[in-house]
Amino acid sequence: MRLLFVGDSMTIGRAGERTWRYWMTRHLGDCPACRGTGGPPAVVGPWTHQYEGEAEGTTAGGTGAGPATGGATDDATDDAAGDGPHLAAWGEGWLHMASRVRAAVHEARPDVLLVSLGLIDLGFYTDSAGTEANVLRFFTEARAAAPRIRAVVLPVVPNVRAGTDALFAAEVERFNARLARLLAGIGGPRSPLLLAPPPTAPPVSYDIRRDTYDGTHPSPSGARKLAAAFADALHTLRGPATGPGGAAGTLLGPPAGTGGVRAPRPGAASGASRSG
């Protein structure tokens, strides 16, 4: 099984951060069910770097001069956190990745896309209807390179802006409803497209007050929880997980073997910081 991570600033991360990609990759190596079906998992993608610039404001937060761009070129040096390959860029969304995914799928030959996009689109570029159109274009392009591509897509997690901007919060809700209908309509047995359960709901219970460092970008606990949401959905796509606790348990529960990940400490979060 070959996986390609697709995302924005929450996926690429700052240089040295351990993003949800790191914890997802670690889970793939530790999980017997992941290793036992379809061969050893492999993470693939055209880029390996993380974001190194200074980004002002908060992603889709309505502050600062707007999103900082990045990720258009490859850096072959592995980052300190060992996050590995990806197709993710700071300040970019479905709008941008729709024009890149065909080449990335053709070159990296992934079996499954793990996608976290949409917040930046809704915050700066397109409304829910326009973003839905770009999701459709994204999967049309991906299937042009690999007709049987599978995908797990994370709903947009509302950030701190949604707490003060009712119109933005409503647009996020509308988009997530559109996304669910679209994936159900264009997915199928040959190319299933699965919407991951919202990570803000149990068993993951992602909370931006505790699980982000600025109201948008995941803190260490948040990164593990996003990975757990993807892991649960990926096991649904591939079949039931084995062992106690399921997929999320291997990421959020007590360590299993040498590579387990302990649950984040309740209330562990850092203060606000500059981000893009």
Structural summary, described in words:
- 39% of the residues lie in helices and 8% in strands.
- The protein is globular, with a radius of gyration of 17 Å.
- The chain has 11 helices and 6 strands.
- The two termini are 32 Å apart.
- The model is unreliable at 55-59, 61-81, 240-247 and 249-276 (pLDDT under 50).
- The longest helix has 21 residues, at 166-186.
- Helix 10 packs antiparallel against helix 11.
- It has one domain: SGNH hydrolase (Rossmann fold), CATH 3.40.50.
- The protein has helices spanning 9-12, 20-30, 32-36, 94-97, 101-108, 119-125, 128-145, 166-186, 208-211, 220-238, 246-252; strands spanning 2-7, 42-44, 87-88, 112-116, 150-153, 193-195.
- By secondary structure, it is an alpha/beta fold.
- Strands 1, 2, 3, 4, 5 and 6 form a 6-stranded parallel sheet that branches.
Major sheet summary line: 6 strands, parallel
What is the CATH homologous superfamily assignment?
SGNH hydrolase
Estimate the global geometry from the Cα principal axes: globular
According to CATH, the fold-level topology is Rossmann fold
Number of helices: 11
- Oligomeric status of the shown chains? single chain
Annotated CATH architecture = 3-Layer(aba) Sandwich
The portion of residues assigned to helices is: 25-40%
Residue-averaged pLDDT, rounded?
77
At the first level of CATH, the class is Alpha Beta
The assigned structural class equals: alpha/beta
